[in-house]
Design brief:
98 residues, two-stranded antiparallel sheet, 4 helices, 2 strands
């Protein structure tokens, strides 16, 4: 059976996450899909892998960074200052200083 609706979208999102993992698409995908407050609001971890004397490997998680996503302000990028200076009618996006 072919997926549709939310199930299809979830499969597409997972496929892009896996296939484009190291190609810097994820940042823009989660904002376009408006799921950043679910997936980017957490603690990000790294892993230390050490080889033990007996040849086995030991895996230890460590905290890299705590991230807080503030919706809706973080869904927008700041408008460059030089663009605002060129047009007095242009206003900075919410959450960024003028």
């Amino acid at each position: 059976m072919t997926e549709s609706g939310e199930a299809l979208l979830a499969k597409i999102q997972h496929e892009r996450k896996v296939e484009l993992a190291f190609e810097e698409h994820r940042f823009y995908d989660v904002r376009r899909w408006k799921i950043a407050e679910k997936v980017d609001k957490s603690v990000f971890h790294g892993i230390n892998i050490t080889k033990q004397a007996d040849g086995t490997k030991k895996y230890e998680l460590f905290e890299i960074q705590k991230r807080d996503f503030v919706a809706p302000a973080h869904y927008l990028l700041p408008i460059p200052r030089y663009e605002i200076q060129k047009n007095d009618l242009l206003e900075q996006n919410p959450g960024y200083d003028k």
